[in-house]
Amino acid sequence: KKYLKESSERKRLYNEVIELKGNIRVFCRCRPLNQDEITSGSSSVVEFDPSQDTELQITCSDSSKKHFKFDHVFGPQENQEAVFAQTSPVVTSVLDGFNVCIFAYGQTGTGKTFTMEGTSENRGVNYRTLEELFRISKERSDTMRYELCVSMLEVYNEKIRDLLVDDPNEHVKKLEIKQGAEGTQEVPGLVEARVYSTDEVWEQLKTGSRIRAVGSTNSNELSSRSHCLLRVTVKGESLVNGQRTRSQLWLVDLAGSERVGKTEVEGERLKESQFINKSLSALGDVISALASKTAHIPYRNSKLTHLLQSSLGGDCKTLMFVQISPSSADLGETLCSLNFASRVRGIEHGPARKQA
Ligand code: ADP
Asked: Where, if anywhere, are coiled coils annotated (predicted)?
């Protein structure tokens, strides 16, 4: 009884929040200037207002200012804990039966992988999410039993590759998206690993990253041109009334959003960048259609949005991190990313704030 009451209260509160704020959030994260940028004399073009955490201002090359507002803004000093503190309510709602999608969007080198994967000293959203899911499952173990499975895949040139296969050469096997029985999108043949602890998850994630690098001469180069997706499937069973839930959480490190230089636009690189542009704009179109509550949502325009179809829209939660560089050298790409994120969120950026 107590559990049912708590669970329905959680859902009621969650729906109330959705009513108030909508179920799409956009967070912006700016990395620190790196040593090379400092040495080469680049300066920071991004300004934060210490009195609030939803706005930032960019100084353009003609000294004009552009002002942007998001659901949350993280400056260069904000650490992984601070980022996860804002993210955790979104990810943990998967335990209450909601589907969730989290993306990191931005130019290569702006910290997408740092935010999602992190490093062994500074673990990112992926690891912290699993850690939190295990913690809450344990807390609720009197009334609920949860089963957690992870899959990891990559979308490169509109082809899906499994990143959790035992034999790295097997990852080239062809995977396709099929409509599942419950209207969900399934990928038959994709490895789904049951996980019992956070250590095990870390091992799985490392395996995935290793396999991701196979077959490329420069793994950083290749990884910036493919989308990497971690899927967490949560099956829940109530020990009170036997009710079952099944939900999915997708954690996505997107391909770099930068436009390719004119000199590079040929051959393989051209093909790759066309695939990336197509899938990133398809993602933008889907999210903005959802934000503006358009009747037709164009999921089928890319493998990425098709895969995520059952976790985008309806009462699903979506969170996008728009990652930016503070450097004056990246100004053009930074403005592109911020404009993309504003469009996705359906928020137009206003004129610069008046200086005090
Ligand atoms: P991307 O995935 O967007 O290509 P990376 O995550 O590889 O970018 O980040 C590029 C470099 O910047 C890495 O060395 C990373 O550790 C560092 N970096 C990114 N974001 C931060 C941050 N918030 N704080 C400190 N270092 C960061």
From this structure: none
Please tell me if the CB atom of residue 124 comes closer than 6 angstroms to any atom of ligand 1: no
Predicted complex ipTM exceeds 0.90: yes
Task: State how far the alpha carbon of 287 is from the alpha carbons of 22, 138, 281, in Å.
Answer: 12, 34, 10
Q: Do β-strands 317-324 and 100-106 pair in parallel, antiparallel, or remain unpaired?
A: parallel
pTM across the whole model: 0.90
pLDDT tens track for 255-300: 999 877 655 656 777 888 889 989 999 999 998 888 888 888 999 9
In sequence order, what are the beta bridge partners of 58? 46, 66
- Sign of the alpha-carbon torsion through 272, 277, 282, 287: positive
With 0-12 / 13-18 / 19 or more C-beta atoms within 10 angstroms meaning exposed / middle / buried, residue 245 is middle
Outline where the chain has alpha helix (H): 2-21, 35-39, 80-92, 112-116, 125-139, 198-213, 219-223, 267-291, 303-307, 331-345
* CB of 176 closer than 8 Å to CB of 186: no
- 76 Cα nearest atom in ligand 1: 23
Distance 272 CA to ligand 1 centre (A): 23
Closest CA to 53 of 80, 66, 71: 71
Grouping H, G, I as helix, E, B as strand and the rest as coil, residue 182 is coil
